[in-house]
Amino acid sequence: MELNNKINFWQERAKEDFAFAERLFKDKNYLWCLFALHLSLEKTLKARILEKIQKEAPFIHDLVRLAKLAGFDLQEKDIGNLRTFTGFNIEARYEDYRQRLKKIATARYTQKYLAVGRKYLIWFLKKN
To answer: What is the CATH number of the domain that holds 31?
Structure first.
């Protein structure tokens, strides 16, 4: 697959995952909404990394590391938010963490991170 096709692939999957997160929120499936939100941001960053270094991003899920590899200038608030989003990936997968996340993933909590995630998605979709 050509480089531009790969970049487009990652970007389109990221948009699909974000739309899926929004549907999960409407269905009150907050835990999986947060997980899909993480996937969306991860895929967007992998598109930016591919664009920047002309090769595939490493097989990691840490959004802070991926954002830095993609060349984004992160402030402390961004680092904190991206660490929280990365946690959604881990906490949704493993039962002991999942139970903790289920308790805090209320409608208000999830709506907040969905809105914050939308801002990051827009930022990450822009070309560096």
So the answer is: 1.20.120.330
